Amino acid sequence: MRLLLQRAAFYLFTAWAAITINFFLPRMLKGDPVSAYLQKHQGEISPEAAAALRTLFGLDTNKSLAEQYFDYWGLLFSGDLGRSFSHGLAPVADVIATALPWTVGLVGIATVLSFLIGTTLGTLVGWFRGGAGDVVVPVATFFSAVPYFWMGLIAIAVFATGLGWFPASHAYGKGTTPAFSAEFIGEVIAHGTLPALTVVLASLGGWVLGMRNMMITVLDEDYVTVAQAKGLSRRRVVFAYAARNAVLPQLSSFALALGFIVGGTLVMELVFSYPGVGKLLLDATTAKDYPLMQGLFLVITLTVLVANLLADVAYAALDPRTRQGEA
């Protein structure tokens, strides 16, 4: 509990710092989002309407920066992230909510699968080092070294255009109305298989190589030798003794990967025209939609912090030395 409270206090401070930077950074830039919006609609908006927009976006010149800062915190606690210029002044929270499930569903599942497959392969390759399984490492590393956009284009050319096994783009077919039905879910899975497969292949090499190297290091430890001398089964020695300790450094990397799931894989979403958070952030940057950019940065930052907090808890649960060291 003491370890958990210490970690929680640290991440709460980090969250406060990130939110504070998220507030001040746009205000340090030249101009403001309302001015950028008015330039695109010259002559269409009256001065009174422009003043109302500045009040709506917390940029009222009659208020000091400190007052704007506390108003910003009040809006955050009420769940109000502002209004998006590029989406017809729709609430930023609603705009993000439309893209978030697609990114989490696709990139999240692909990241978890890549971690599980890569860690398992790295465990086996490390245990049976010097055998035929060593060929897995250069093959996985090769796929990780290939530029992602090139891998995506090759996948589309071979499996979508050539063989016709999977759709080439989008999250579901054109003209399809989203609904919670078996037909729509099957269509989403079909459209997501190819981009998910490329994400898994692109990230597999790092998990395999990292776990293999840690397994080789752990196998020289005394507790593994003692476990083998006690006559324990090979499976128990591998997974209960060696892999359990070798996987600890992987958890930190996995936490970062989980945190950046919300950020999405921008190149993947562009190649496959997938409606995720990464593409939404690019569109917001192109349109200079500062409220939407602020909302996306905030969600991504908080997700990374929560993922790291969960990784610290899992690390302490797997490694008692961490708890003893903090005590």
Automatic annotation (TrEMBL):
Domain of life per record: Bacteria
Domain annotation ABC transmembrane type-1: ranges: 100-311
Entry keyword annotation includes Transmembrane helix: yes
Primary location recorded for the protein, binned into one broad class: membrane
Membrane topology of this protein: Multi-pass membrane protein
A Pfam family recorded for this sequence: BPD_transp_1
Keywords per UniProt: Membrane, Transmembrane, Transmembrane helix, Transport
Record flagged with keyword Membrane: yes
Subcellular location: Cell membrane; Membrane
Transmembrane segments: 102-128, 135-168, 188-209, 254-275, 295-318
PANTHER family recorded: OLIGOPEPTIDE TRANSPORT SYSTEM PERMEASE PROTEIN
Stated family: Belongs to the binding-protein-dependent transport system permease family.
Name of the featured protein: ABC transporter permease
The organism of origin for this protein: Myceligenerans crystallogenes
